[in-house]
Every structure is written in structure tokens, then in C-alpha cells.
């Protein structure tokens, strides 16, 4: 029996890994225009994201699934399209606004959209985690490595 395109991607992890690799490849293409030392920051992050996506893509899958598990693995195309187009918008706006502010907003809303709880509390938690991530990135690249991040009008 021949499977349809969507049936091949019932496993959400596989589809997510493929979308992440596509988005990261867009980031890598943009980063190739930067000279050293400016290119160290984006290429490091992009390399790590691509590595994690490959690990997700290549890890063994569970063969026997119940019907309830299969329904949970059905891709939500609206979330996937939102993630892809949100990433493209992030790439366009980042040089204008700046890395830290755009990344904070992007990470906050992406984590909130991917989750199952759309309450204000969940958005607050996503924003708090995003803020911690941004402080971590700032500490590593600005204070320790002293590599500049993309700047814009605001920061």
C-alpha cells in the first residue's frame, strides 16, 4: 500500500527537524556574507541548531504506535507555516531592530506558539525563559568571547 506525503510525516519530530534544517540553512546563507569576527556568533548558533535538528532527524523511531499516539503525531500545518514565516520575518527585521530585541520577541512567541497552553501565564513563562536565554547569549558573546552581535536601531 502506497503512503501519501502527509502519512510519511506523521511523526512530528521528523517534520520539525526538516523545517528547522530549512530555516537554519536560510540563516547560514545570510551569515556567509559576514566577515570574521562578526560571523563567529551566527555560525556557532546555526551550527548548534543544525546539529540538534540532525540528532532529532536521525534518532530511532518507535515502530508500534497506538491510534491515540498517531493522532498526537499529526502535524499542525498552521504552526509549521507560522514558524517558517516567523523565521523569515525575523531574518528581515533583525538587521533593522537589532539582535537582542528581535531574538527575545522571536523566542518568546515561538515557544508560546509551539506549546499547547495559550494563556498569558504561558506567554509570561516563555518570555522569562527567552530573557534568560538572551542574557546567556549576551554574556557569552559580548562579555567572554567579545564578538559583536548584529546591531540595529534599538540595540
TrEMBL record:
Pfam families: TctB (PF07331). Keywords: Membrane, Transmembrane, Transmembrane helix. InterPro entries: DUF1468. Signal peptide: none annotated. The chain crosses the membrane at residues 12-32, 38-57, 122-145. It comes from the Bacteria. The keyword Phosphoprotein does not apply. The keyword Transmembrane helix applies. Residues 17-150 form the DUF1468 domain. This is Tripartite tricarboxylate transporter TctB family protein. It comes from Cytobacillus dafuensis (Bacillus dafuensis).
